[in-house]
Amino acid sequence: xxxxxxxxxxxxxxxxxxxxxxxxxxxxxETTKALAAFSNLEQICEEHLKGRxxxxxxxxxxxxxxxxxxxxxxxxxxxxxxxxxIKKIIGDLTNxxxxxxxxxxxxxxx
Amino acid sequence: MPPSSSKSGVAARRASAAKRVRxxxxxxxxxxxKGLDEITGGGLPRGRPTLVCGGPGCGKTLxxxxxxxxxxxxxxxxxxxxxxEESEAELTSNVASxxxxxxxxxxxKKLAIDQVRVERSEIEETGEYDLEGLFVRLQHAVESIGxxxxxxxxxxxxxxxxPNPVILRSELRRLFRWLKDRELTAVITGEKxxxxxTRQGLEEYVSxxxxxxxxxxxxxxxxxxxxxxxxxxxxxxxxxxxxxxxxNGISVLPITSLGLEHEASTERVSSGIPRLNEMLDxxxxxxxxxxxxxxxxxxxxTSMATHLATDFCRKGQRCLYFAFEESAAQIQRNMxxxxxxxxxxxxxxxxxxxxxxxxxAGLEVLLTSxxxxxxxxxxxxxxxxxxxxxxxxxxxxxxCSMLTRxxxxxxxxxxxxxxxxxxxxxxxxxxxxxxxxxxxxxWLMLEVTRSGGERNRLIxxxxxxxxxHSNQTSEYRLTSKGVQILDTYLGxxxxxxxxxxxxxxxxxxxxxxxxxxxxxxxxxVRESRRxxxxxxxxxxxxxxxxEDATLERAIKEEGILQQRVESDRIAMAESRKAFSGxxxxxxxxxxxxxx
Lengths: 110, 595
Prior knowledge:
The complex is a heterodimer.
Chain A: H1 2-8, E1 9-12, E2 21-27, H2 32-48, E3 53-59, H3 66-69, E4 77-82, E5 87-90, H4 96-103
Chain B: H1 2-24, E1 28-29, H2 36-39, E2 44-45, E3 49-54, H3 60-74, E4 79-83, H4 88-96, H5 102-107, E5 111-115, E6 123-125, H6 132-145, E7 149-153, H7 157-161, H8 165-181, E8 185-191, E9 209-218, E10 221-231, E11 240-246, E12 249-252, E13 268-269, H9 274-279, E14 285-286, E15 290-295, H10 301-314, E16 319-323, H11 328-336, H12 342-348, E17 351-355, H13 358-361, H14 363-377, E18 381-385, H15 396-412, E19 416-422, E20 442-451, E21 454-464, E22 474-479, E23 482-485, E24 489-491, E25 494-496, H16 498-576, H17 586-594
Parallel strand pairs in B: 3-8, 3-9, 4-5, 4-7, 7-8, 15-19, 15-20, 16-17, 16-18, 18-19
Antiparallel strand pairs in B: 1-2, 9-10, 10-11, 11-12, 13-14, 20-21, 21-22, 22-23, 24-25
């Protein structure tokens, strides 16, 4: 099972230091929506959280049991594991503004 | 062997034809819920989703869980419970009280529970999404145990937690399609909406079978009811059926389907009171008939009922006694005072006393629990004491309808039933409050008469179908040896009771003594007269004998005299040498010729 899990997770970002932002993207197969979400997310992170984030992509088709842990229903779902509290953003993350609000990246002064 | 083989060929063809019809007909998955399978004609549509909807607290989740648990335990069909509201632990403990060990079923891989919990506050939406996550989870759960049944409880709550109803609706449509494609028999629960079956119009998606649960409160008493709103491709009962949730799960009562088709027994059962049997054509009640004992307070209705019960129990037949007013112990104690030992029968298991307050749960629930108890105990006699208590709970119509159904049910089982009915002191005696007299086969009316400063009890057989019953009003007493029906004394103002009866009895006794005296006196007179006559006869006889003897003597003397005359004459003739004249006539003529 351990092996499966590692294969199911794809990590992007600096693996060394403990990342300030720990994000998880749940997908179910490499659909267009999943791919769009991933590229949108990468772009936003590179722009706003460069060097401070880590993205873990979890494909539920490969490891369906993981859906329970984060209570995933909608696909794709982005989960902000860190910093707490947990935040969830569903959809293909096309609206960068809303993603930033959702992740609390953008300070409220904006 | 050719004829038999051709016969079996016909049978086989017939069987295969029947099988084809069955195949064409909608396949059904038995829910295992008591009564529901009868109403739906076999269960829920197999491989299709069924919508179970109703207001909060009407038992949707329990019904769904029982459907899964029974499927897993009794029909070998594992199931997945996808809960959108309660957690696994909550569900497990909720249904544990109904006798389902969910934890064990999960261990045995017969049941899987997946709780879907979505916090609206945690969720931000941007861009397109679908509910593939839900599908993945469901599929995983189904595959992990090879599930044949699925419950989604209550999927509508997703509308509250996910922001885009348009996506949700299309995804739900896809979900139900998905379930059908996999031939999963599914139960989807939904909350009742305003004017619609479900708040979010789920009936639009799940249209094969819709079951509506209701939880109605009348006079502070709630009754649960179930109705099959629609069942595509199958006939089903359309009425509302009361159902009960108790320690055995859900029981639905298909009682309105009962009709007047019960058989009528000609067998008779003793009432337990010999003289009452005499009043009932000498043999007692009919087996399987419905008996009503009505009367005002304190007339001994329970005693009459208990007599019948003990008579049944004594013969080893089972009796189920529903006590709506007294506790089991109280009845036993009270009946001991008239010499009926119920405790003995309770101990040997032929008698079961079930105390129940109709006001505690409502009529329909009561009826359901009566059904259950009857099915469980299988009695030959059911006693309800008193049914007038039912009216305090529902309306007249409800109570009457409930009793009608109950009588139908008990009659269809051939169970003899005795109801007691308390008539209020002011009410018309020959009228049951519940208005069920026409349903009753034998009606005994007990009444109390007040005369001479006493209250005395009277029994009448108002009616008894199918037998020549007595029309006599009789007095009876509750003695330490049970109910005793007494001889009837009629006075100028009707039946004499109590002291009047005793006075009459005494008078009758006095009269009897007098009559007996008279008889013996007359007999003595007769005897003395007889003796007098006999004495006179004896005297006369003696007189006669004396007279007779005298006469005889006289006759004898006369004879001797005659002889003497004759011999004198002969002697004289001889002396004259004349013919003695013994041969008179010729000799005399010769003598004359000669001379």
